[in-house]
Design goal:
about 280 residues; alpha/beta; 6-stranded mixed β-sheet; two-stranded antiparallel sheet; 12 helices; globular; disordered C terminus
Length: about 280
């Protein structure tokens, strides 16, 4: 893996800074960030943008702030990495739009083991995944149209995916159905190939089964994987099967994956990483 970006055909090493979570909403607040970045000698800014920012009403997109941030970075001579807050930001749905937050039936929440509803969108329901993917693909399509000089060099998709609250995993009906289903083949393949790691050790302790549901493969420790790694990995596989267009970020509509953009998905169960990166 390269430790630098390739921008306009040339290596580019990003020496950057990240603004505060809500700074992207206000140019006046960003002004302090731009000045600090310049004084530090930085060349790249990472600035969060959100689902609620670009789609305050369903199907009515507003890219005013996205355009302003790109122009501010360009005028200051900086490259830009956007950070997308949507389904997750620090394992909550804080930056999802109000029309999503207030429609619990259409956009189900994570449930704790005792039925308590958390402020986290369940990743096991297609409507949640579909809404996030639609908004994200609209953002990427817009950037593709307006960023004529490749000011934007990368996109971090989501931040700290998982569940913050009184449960290790989602106990909603759909989540329970998937938890009781067989562990996805991609996870089993990684475990078979692994030689170390917490999940590998638990798998070995439980008999190193090559098939079975989560409890059968990982025993009582299965629920402890629900915060980020395993539950979302399972959801990704299910999503790719039942919502292929959304899982590919609606690339057929927005023509995003072309000579400029490449979708890179890195998943590591052993190292507790779930990383999505879109790089120019």
């Amino acid at each position: 893996m390269n430790h630098y970006f390739n921008v306009n055909g040339k290596p580019f090493f990003a020496f950057g800074g990240q603004s505060q979570n809500c700074s992207g909403y206000d140019s006046a607040e960003l002004e302090y960030f731009w000045r600090a970045l310049k004084l530090s000698g930085g060349n790249t800014a990472e600035i969060p943008i959100s689902w609620e920012m670009v789609e305050p009403e369903e199907d009515k997109f507003d890219f005013t702030r996205v355009d302003s941030i790109i122009e501010e970075a360009r005028s200051g001579g900086f490259k830009l990495i956007f950070l997308w807050f949507a389904t997750w930001k620090n394992a909550t749905m804080k930056f999802a739009p109000e029309w999503v937050k207030t429609d619990r039936k259409r956009f189900p929440r994570v449930l704790s083991y005792d039925g308590y509803e958390l402020s986290v969108l369940s990743s096991h329901y297609a409507e949640n995944c579909r809404g996030d993917a639609k908004a994200f693909s609209a953002v990427m399509e817009h950037i593709h149209e307006v960023d004529y000089d490749n000011t934007v060099i990368a996109m971090q998709v989501e931040n700290e995916c998982g569940i913050l609250g009184k449960t290790y995993r989602d106990h909603s009906p759909e989540a329970n159905r998937e938890f009781e289903a067989d562990v996805p083949a991609c996870i089993m393949d990684n475990l078979v190939k692994a030689t170390e790691g917490a999940e590998y050790e638990i798998w070995q302790k439980c008999g190193a089964k090559t098939s079975g549901n989560w409890y059968e493969v990982f025993g009582e420790d299965a629920a402890n994987f629900g915060h980020a790694e395993v539950e979302i990995l399972a959801t990704l596989e299910n999503l790719s099967e039942r919502e292929g267009d959304a899982a590919r970020l609606d690339t057929g509509r927005c023509n995003l994956v072309d000579e400029r953009w490449e979708l890179v998905v890195v998943v590591s169960v052993n190292e507790h990483h779930l990383i999505f990166v879109l790089c120019a």
